[in-house]
Amino acid sequence: MSQPEDAEARRAVQPVICYPNETLPVPELALYAKAREGAEKVDEVLVPARDAGCFRAKAGQFFRISSVDGPQVGDLNLWNANDLNERFYSGKSRALHGTHLTTGERMWSSFPYLRPMATITEDTLGWYGMDQYGGSVHDVIGTRCDPYTGNLLSGSQYHHCCHSNLTRALADELGVSLAEAEPHVHDVLNVFMCTGFTRDTGQYFMKASPVRPGDYLEFFAEIDVLGALSACPGGDCSAEHSSDTAACYPLLVEVFAPQEGALGDWQSPPVNGYDRSHGR
Fold first, then answer.
1. In which domain, by residue range, is 158 found?
2. Most buried pick, 14, 24, 213, 242, via CB within 10 A?
3. Residue 2, in any domain of the structure
Protein backbone atom coordinates (compact mmCIF):
# COMPACT_ATOMS: atom_id res chain seq x y z
CA MET A 1 0.00 0.00 0.00
CA SER A 2 1.46 3.36 -0.99
CA GLN A 3 1.96 6.07 1.59
CA PRO A 4 0.35 9.50 1.25
CA GLU A 5 2.71 12.38 0.49
CA ASP A 6 2.27 13.77 4.02
CA ALA A 7 2.85 10.43 5.80
CA GLU A 8 5.86 11.66 7.77
CA ALA A 9 4.05 14.82 8.82
CA ARG A 10 1.15 12.74 10.12
CA ARG A 11 3.51 10.50 12.09
CA ALA A 12 5.27 13.53 13.54
CA VAL A 13 2.16 14.86 15.29
CA GLN A 14 2.94 15.22 19.01
CA PRO A 15 1.07 12.90 21.40
CA VAL A 16 -1.40 14.18 23.99
CA ILE A 17 -1.81 12.48 27.39
CA CYS A 18 -5.37 11.14 27.44
CA TYR A 19 -5.92 11.48 31.17
CA PRO A 20 -3.67 14.11 32.80
CA ASN A 21 -3.55 12.89 36.40
CA GLU A 22 -2.39 16.00 38.24
CA THR A 23 -5.88 16.45 39.71
CA LEU A 24 -6.23 12.90 41.03
CA PRO A 25 -6.78 12.72 44.80
CA VAL A 26 -3.33 12.44 46.38
CA PRO A 27 -2.85 9.47 48.75
CA GLU A 28 -1.75 10.37 52.26
CA LEU A 29 1.48 8.38 52.11
CA ALA A 30 3.02 10.03 55.17
CA LEU A 31 -0.06 9.17 57.24
CA TYR A 32 -0.06 5.61 55.94
CA ALA A 33 3.65 5.21 56.72
CA LYS A 34 3.16 6.44 60.27
CA ALA A 35 0.22 4.10 60.80
CA ARG A 36 2.23 1.19 59.38
CA GLU A 37 5.01 1.61 61.97
CA GLY A 38 2.94 0.19 64.83
CA ALA A 39 0.78 -2.18 62.80
CA GLU A 40 0.47 -5.80 63.90
CA LYS A 41 0.09 -8.82 61.66
CA VAL A 42 -3.43 -10.22 61.90
CA ASP A 43 -3.46 -12.80 59.10
CA GLU A 44 -1.34 -14.52 56.48
CA VAL A 45 -1.95 -16.82 53.53
CA LEU A 46 0.76 -18.85 51.81
CA VAL A 47 -0.29 -19.28 48.19
CA PRO A 48 1.06 -22.58 46.81
CA ALA A 49 2.98 -22.69 43.54
CA ARG A 50 0.69 -23.10 40.50
CA ASP A 51 -2.35 -22.40 42.66
CA ALA A 52 -4.23 -19.48 44.20
CA GLY A 53 -5.54 -18.35 47.55
CA CYS A 54 -7.86 -15.68 48.91
CA PHE A 55 -7.35 -13.12 51.65
CA ARG A 56 -9.30 -10.25 53.20
CA ALA A 57 -8.20 -6.86 54.46
CA LYS A 58 -10.40 -4.26 56.10
CA ALA A 59 -10.37 -0.60 55.12
CA GLY A 60 -7.38 0.99 56.84
CA GLN A 61 -5.34 -2.21 56.99
CA PHE A 62 -2.24 -3.11 54.96
CA PHE A 63 -1.56 -6.21 52.91
CA ARG A 64 1.83 -7.33 51.63
CA ILE A 65 2.67 -9.78 48.84
CA SER A 66 6.14 -11.27 49.24
CA SER A 67 8.48 -13.56 47.35
CA VAL A 68 9.60 -16.23 49.77
CA ASP A 69 11.43 -19.17 48.18
CA GLY A 70 12.36 -18.10 44.66
CA PRO A 71 11.53 -15.72 41.81
CA GLN A 72 7.79 -15.91 41.24
CA VAL A 73 5.14 -13.67 39.73
CA GLY A 74 1.52 -13.44 40.88
CA ASP A 75 -1.81 -12.45 39.36
CA LEU A 76 -3.93 -10.34 41.72
CA ASN A 77 -7.70 -9.87 41.65
CA LEU A 78 -9.39 -7.48 44.07
CA TRP A 79 -13.06 -6.99 44.96
CA ASN A 80 -15.06 -4.91 47.39
CA ALA A 81 -15.46 -7.51 50.13
CA ASN A 82 -19.08 -6.42 50.64
CA ASP A 83 -20.10 -6.19 46.97
CA LEU A 84 -18.36 -8.27 44.31
CA ASN A 85 -19.84 -6.07 41.58
CA GLU A 86 -17.17 -3.54 42.52
CA ARG A 87 -13.85 -4.93 41.40
CA PHE A 88 -10.42 -3.87 40.19
CA TYR A 89 -10.48 -2.04 36.85
CA SER A 90 -7.07 -2.66 35.31
CA GLY A 91 -7.82 -0.70 32.14
CA LYS A 92 -8.73 2.51 33.94
CA SER A 93 -5.83 2.08 36.38
CA ARG A 94 -3.56 1.80 33.34
CA ALA A 95 -5.12 4.88 31.74
CA LEU A 96 -4.64 6.91 34.92
CA HIS A 97 -1.17 5.75 36.00
CA GLY A 98 0.50 4.01 33.06
CA THR A 99 1.29 0.45 32.08
CA HIS A 100 2.98 -0.50 35.38
CA LEU A 101 2.14 0.50 38.94
CA THR A 102 4.45 1.44 41.81
CA THR A 103 4.54 3.35 45.11
CA GLY A 104 1.90 6.06 45.44
CA GLU A 105 -0.26 4.66 42.64
CA ARG A 106 -3.58 2.97 43.06
CA MET A 107 -5.80 0.10 42.07
CA TRP A 108 -9.07 1.74 40.95
CA SER A 109 -12.47 0.06 40.95
CA SER A 110 -14.93 -0.55 38.14
CA PHE A 111 -17.83 1.64 37.01
CA PRO A 112 -19.99 3.04 38.48
CA TYR A 113 -17.86 3.13 41.63
CA LEU A 114 -14.47 4.29 40.27
CA ARG A 115 -12.65 4.93 43.54
CA PRO A 116 -9.37 3.78 45.04
CA MET A 117 -9.50 0.21 46.30
CA ALA A 118 -5.86 -0.02 47.39
CA THR A 119 -2.80 2.23 47.31
CA ILE A 120 0.72 0.89 46.82
CA THR A 121 2.75 2.07 49.81
CA GLU A 122 5.98 0.10 49.36
CA ASP A 123 7.65 -1.50 46.35
CA THR A 124 11.06 -3.11 46.78
CA LEU A 125 11.37 -3.39 42.98
CA GLY A 126 10.79 0.33 42.47
CA TRP A 127 14.46 0.65 41.54
CA TYR A 128 13.91 -1.33 38.30
CA GLY A 129 12.22 1.48 36.41
CA MET A 130 11.96 0.96 32.63
CA ASP A 131 14.62 -1.18 30.96
CA GLN A 132 16.14 -0.94 27.48
CA TYR A 133 13.40 -3.15 26.01
CA GLY A 134 10.57 -1.05 27.45
CA GLY A 135 9.99 -3.60 30.20
CA SER A 136 8.96 -2.83 33.77
CA VAL A 137 7.35 -4.62 36.73
CA HIS A 138 3.82 -4.87 38.20
CA ASP A 139 1.89 -4.46 34.96
CA VAL A 140 -1.75 -3.70 34.25
CA ILE A 141 -1.55 -4.64 30.57
CA GLY A 142 -1.58 -8.45 30.67
CA THR A 143 -4.97 -10.00 31.31
CA ARG A 144 -3.90 -13.28 33.05
CA CYS A 145 -2.97 -16.64 31.55
CA ASP A 146 -6.15 -18.56 30.86
CA PRO A 147 -7.32 -21.92 29.45
CA TYR A 148 -9.40 -20.37 26.68
CA THR A 149 -6.49 -18.68 24.92
CA GLY A 150 -4.41 -21.80 25.42
CA ASN A 151 -7.10 -23.87 23.77
CA LEU A 152 -7.43 -21.34 20.95
CA LEU A 153 -3.72 -21.29 20.16
CA SER A 154 -2.67 -24.88 20.85
CA GLY A 155 -5.77 -26.95 21.58
CA SER A 156 -4.65 -27.49 25.18
CA GLN A 157 -6.74 -28.20 28.28
CA TYR A 158 -4.51 -26.64 30.95
CA HIS A 159 -6.22 -26.18 34.31
CA HIS A 160 -3.61 -24.50 36.51
CA CYS A 161 -3.32 -21.22 34.61
CA CYS A 162 -4.04 -18.10 36.63
CA HIS A 163 -7.63 -17.69 35.44
CA SER A 164 -8.54 -21.20 36.58
CA ASN A 165 -6.53 -20.84 39.80
CA LEU A 166 -8.39 -17.64 40.67
CA THR A 167 -11.72 -19.23 39.79
CA ARG A 168 -11.13 -22.21 42.10
CA ALA A 169 -9.89 -20.00 44.94
CA LEU A 170 -12.86 -17.65 44.74
CA ALA A 171 -15.34 -20.54 44.51
CA ASP A 172 -13.82 -22.07 47.64
CA GLU A 173 -13.78 -18.75 49.50
CA LEU A 174 -17.43 -17.99 48.73
CA GLY A 175 -18.70 -21.58 48.90
CA VAL A 176 -20.15 -21.38 45.38
CA SER A 177 -19.76 -23.37 42.19
CA LEU A 178 -17.02 -22.75 39.64
CA ALA A 179 -19.69 -21.54 37.21
CA GLU A 180 -20.87 -18.94 39.74
CA ALA A 181 -17.36 -17.81 40.65
CA GLU A 182 -15.83 -17.55 37.17
CA PRO A 183 -17.70 -14.41 35.97
CA HIS A 184 -16.23 -12.48 38.90
CA VAL A 185 -12.62 -13.22 37.87
CA HIS A 186 -11.20 -10.24 36.05
CA ASP A 187 -8.08 -8.67 34.55
CA VAL A 188 -5.26 -8.55 37.03
CA LEU A 189 -2.38 -6.64 38.49
CA ASN A 190 0.59 -8.79 37.47
CA VAL A 191 2.61 -8.57 40.66
CA PHE A 192 6.40 -8.85 40.12
CA MET A 193 5.92 -9.69 36.42
CA CYS A 194 8.33 -7.90 34.04
CA THR A 195 6.57 -6.99 30.80
CA GLY A 196 6.25 -4.46 28.01
CA PHE A 197 5.45 -4.04 24.34
CA THR A 198 7.89 -4.71 21.52
CA ARG A 199 8.88 -1.56 19.66
CA ASP A 200 8.52 -3.05 16.19
CA THR A 201 5.33 -5.13 16.34
CA GLY A 202 3.68 -3.79 19.51
CA GLN A 203 3.35 -7.30 20.94
CA TYR A 204 3.04 -7.93 24.64
CA PHE A 205 6.23 -9.53 25.96
CA MET A 206 7.48 -10.94 29.25
CA LYS A 207 10.98 -11.54 30.55
CA ALA A 208 12.56 -12.97 33.68
CA SER A 209 11.27 -11.10 36.70
CA PRO A 210 13.88 -9.31 38.83
CA VAL A 211 12.05 -10.42 41.99
CA ARG A 212 14.03 -12.30 44.62
CA PRO A 213 13.08 -13.79 48.02
CA GLY A 214 12.49 -10.92 50.41
CA ASP A 215 11.06 -8.58 47.79
CA TYR A 216 7.52 -7.39 48.36
CA LEU A 217 4.73 -5.12 47.20
CA GLU A 218 2.65 -3.60 49.99
CA PHE A 219 -0.75 -1.94 49.81
CA PHE A 220 -3.02 0.17 52.00
CA ALA A 221 -6.63 -1.05 51.76
CA GLU A 222 -8.79 1.98 51.01
CA ILE A 223 -11.99 -0.08 51.31
CA ASP A 224 -12.81 -3.53 52.67
CA VAL A 225 -11.25 -5.85 50.10
CA LEU A 226 -11.37 -9.50 49.17
CA GLY A 227 -8.27 -10.49 47.23
CA ALA A 228 -7.32 -13.56 45.25
CA LEU A 229 -3.71 -14.18 44.26
CA SER A 230 -2.43 -16.82 41.84
CA ALA A 231 1.19 -17.98 41.90
CA CYS A 232 1.56 -18.14 38.12
CA PRO A 233 2.51 -21.53 36.61
CA GLY A 234 5.15 -19.68 34.59
CA GLY A 235 7.28 -19.05 37.69
CA ASP A 236 9.33 -15.94 36.94
CA CYS A 237 7.87 -15.90 33.40
CA SER A 238 11.29 -16.09 31.77
CA ALA A 239 10.10 -18.62 29.18
CA GLU A 240 6.40 -19.49 29.35
CA HIS A 241 3.40 -18.68 31.52
CA SER A 242 1.34 -21.90 31.53
CA SER A 243 3.78 -24.67 32.29
CA ASP A 244 4.24 -27.79 34.39
CA THR A 245 8.01 -27.59 33.94
CA ALA A 246 8.89 -23.99 34.89
CA ALA A 247 10.34 -23.58 38.37
CA CYS A 248 7.52 -22.21 40.54
CA TYR A 249 7.41 -21.01 44.13
CA PRO A 250 4.78 -19.95 46.67
CA LEU A 251 3.86 -16.36 47.43
CA LEU A 252 3.10 -15.01 50.90
CA VAL A 253 0.27 -12.60 51.66
CA GLU A 254 0.31 -10.89 55.06
CA VAL A 255 -2.32 -8.53 56.51
CA PHE A 256 -1.40 -5.87 59.07
CA ALA A 257 -3.72 -3.80 61.26
CA PRO A 258 -2.61 -0.37 62.55
CA GLN A 259 -3.04 0.55 66.17
CA GLU A 260 -6.39 2.10 67.06
CA GLY A 261 -6.38 5.80 66.26
CA ALA A 262 -3.21 5.61 64.16
CA LEU A 263 -5.05 6.88 61.08
CA GLY A 264 -6.61 9.84 62.85
CA ASP A 265 -9.73 11.04 61.04
CA TRP A 266 -8.96 9.18 57.81
CA GLN A 267 -12.08 7.89 56.06
CA SER A 268 -12.59 5.31 53.35
CA PRO A 269 -13.20 7.04 49.99
CA PRO A 270 -16.83 7.29 48.84
CA VAL A 271 -17.98 5.94 45.50
CA ASN A 272 -17.60 8.17 42.46
CA GLY A 273 -19.65 11.37 42.52
CA TYR A 274 -21.05 11.18 38.99
CA ASP A 275 -24.88 11.49 39.20
CA ARG A 276 -25.44 8.61 36.71
CA SER A 277 -28.11 10.52 34.81
CA HIS A 278 -26.27 9.90 31.50
CA GLY A 279 -27.89 12.91 29.89
CA ARG A 280 -31.48 11.90 30.61
1. 37-257
2. 242
3. no
